[in-house]
Amino acid sequence: MPNHYDTIIIGAGISGLSLAHYCAGAGQKTLVIEKSGRTGGCFHSHRFDGDAAGFWLELGAHTCYNSYGNLIGIMEEDGLLDRLVKREKVSFRMLVDGRIRSIPSQLNFPELLLSVPRLFTLKKNGESVASYYSRIVGRGNYERVFAPAFNAVLSQKAGEFPAGMLFNKRPRRKDIMKSFTLVNGLQTITDALSCEPGIEVVTGTTVPALDFSDGTYQIKTESGQSYETKNLCLAVPPPAAASLLSGLLPDISALLGQIKVETIETVGVAVKREKIQLAPLAGIIAPNDIFYSAVSRDTVPHANYRGFSFHFKGGVASLDEKLKRISEVLKIGQQELTQFVVRESRLPSPVVGHEKLTAAIDRLTDRKALFLTGNYFLGLAIEDCISRSRAEFMRLSGRN
């Protein structure tokens, strides 16, 4: 007999785990299935060992803000607010002609002053990042500075991305520091979610296909476990969701299949402090390079090590080529890169009009006990993911 759960969620990133949090909090017996050997998804705080034991580095998401109200609410309920760590104020810089430069040094200020008044009249609706911001900062400034900066933020070419999905204003919690991380990194949050009462997590197994009959979803994992539920939630990238639904709901699957994704290959390195002469910085923005950005651990200084997560374009360089480029940028010998870790991520790459696509998906799922969440609905920000999960939980609650 298959094990029965009130709700089953496929995908244990922040979207899936936050949805599990809401479901378990409402008394539902909840199962989360994750194909990788760890939970957290983009909440990936790698903990080094050996000589660098005790040093951690963010390979995915790296900052939370006091405007992330739903996230902070979850952290309050899990007793994590006493583990907040303030981030040091250091700046992002740009890699220009092989040298690290300040961002202001690359701006054309007369062009900026002539263009920026449009900020008060130009609307984001129907605009791409390129069409909107190039008119606000000037075409030259956009191509030279802001386009690489947006590419760094999104870890992909950002020009066609809908402008309305970036930098949404939200109320701030004034009792919480403006930007923060946690002791041992952001993965502390998803580690806590994975251990909540009422949530069972199974990792290291995939779901090849789904079945549905008599109002119940049947799920059999690749490892041979069988489960069933009335409420199925998919918190996986669009291609994976499309594949799972192709036999059951081909119309929804076809819509999900239209959402493009980009692969990002991250290499994180821990290097002894005395080996690096670069002044402390938040990260490096790299125009016209094989990587989009390098995010630094200097925001949370460590006595003995510095860390950098280099986010490389997918499929353009071997690991050895990546390590060589890292050593060039950091101006150290490649032999110093003995402590490194790799991660591959897939991020959605929406275009203008994306909201019509997600609205069509929502119309088709509205009367079904199928719930979809992830970073392809409201935006890539952590709070966008949790807000979508909360909305789907409310829809689920309304059905039960």
Automatic annotation (TrEMBL):
It comes from Geotalea uraniireducens (strain Rf4) (Geobacter uraniireducens). GO terms for molecular function: oxidoreductase activity. Pfam families: Amino_oxidase. Residues 14-270 form the Amine oxidase domain. This is Amine oxidase.
